[in-house]
């Protein structure tokens, strides 16, 4: 049972005492009233302690219970009210329901009956509060309020994002891990006509095919071992809104085919079901892979590629928008200084120089992690170089990878290999930490290590967490 504060209003002392003892045994906070006047006085004064539910008798000595209910609902419209009534006054209870009472119980009532009614009322109230909060969040036009930039290069990206947001076209966001692809996807949604509906996202690389399919399409009871209930998938939950498919380049051929059907036919079949469900969804996909190359080499469906790639948004890596490093770092510093309860005034000039000189293979995600660490370790009012990991890097650690020179024309695969290798070295081959910086799943990182034949340097322990 949910733990909450309950108000009990009944003129019979025995009933009040019985109910108070019962609910306190269930760890409720309980306050009792012998008449409607004292109850209303408490609620009008706003000193009811933000009660979660009211259990009220229909018949009161000083005031009709229906009148009490009317006034309670005027003062606290969202307060769930359960009325108690004697068998001969059922009509009054029905009137109470019409006026907004959640339910009624007749005296004498079994202990299990009243506990069940109160429990259900509280669960419904919690659901309504969560739904209201979600609607308010979705209604805010400035939900993606942490897109920080000053560079002309990223301004072009942001202006394109706002330009295409008003259309209903599917969008493909390309960029290295950690460049903010989900943030841009959110900006597309919250500046679109769909802003009042849900924005949902899923990391396609983090799940097995079976689990990914279940998460996307949902399943019916008995569809597979362990499917003890019917579960809606993200496609159904995102109906009318936007679904962000992160790491779309890691989706298997089988799931690619099913996604293509959804985009083309605007319907899908849950796992284990036989009847299709219609949906209206805008798809925003993202990847750090060269999808055009994946198509040429037969690893990604050409028809799905063109369905997703109606509009392409290319995100520049942080090393190509160095003007944004310090504004972003200061934004993150404000965020994390509040969390760690420190009054940090900013980043010292020396620390700013270190941050700007760094190559940022993990892009904005890595910068945020570095600043969070610095906020925790900072001893004064400013972040200084000694709390930055790149400043304290061991002498034997690999040097930063320099940006490719104009005469050093190399493939994206080589760049990716070098980035992964450098992050692994920097974290002491802490694979979970490296995967977080790179913005990929641990499973994907393990696959990349094998694919690029990356070897563990002697004397450095591997981390399997």
From TrEMBL:
It is found in: Cytoplasm. GO terms for biological process: phosphorelay signal transduction system; positive regulation of DNA-templated transcription. Keywords: Activator, ATP-binding, Cytoplasm, DNA-binding, Nitrogen fixation, Nucleotide-binding, Phosphoprotein, Repressor, Transcription, Transcription regulation, Two-component regulatory system. One of its GO terms (molecular function) is ATP binding. Residues 5-122 form the Response regulatory domain. The keyword Transcription applies. The keyword Phosphoprotein applies. One of its GO terms (cellular component) is cytoplasm. InterPro entries: AAA+_ATPase (IPR003593), AAA_lid_NorR (IPR058031), CheY-like_superfamily (IPR011006), Homeodomain-like_sf (IPR009057), HTH_Fis (IPR002197), P-loop_NTPase (IPR027417), Sig_transdc_resp-reg_receiver (IPR001789), Sigma_54_int (IPR002078). The modification 4-aspartylphosphate is found at residue 57. Residues 147-376 form the Sigma-54 factor interaction domain. CDD domains: AAA (cd00009). This is DNA-binding transcriptional regulator NtrC. It comes from Geobacter sulfurreducens (strain ATCC 51573 / DSM 12127 / PCA).
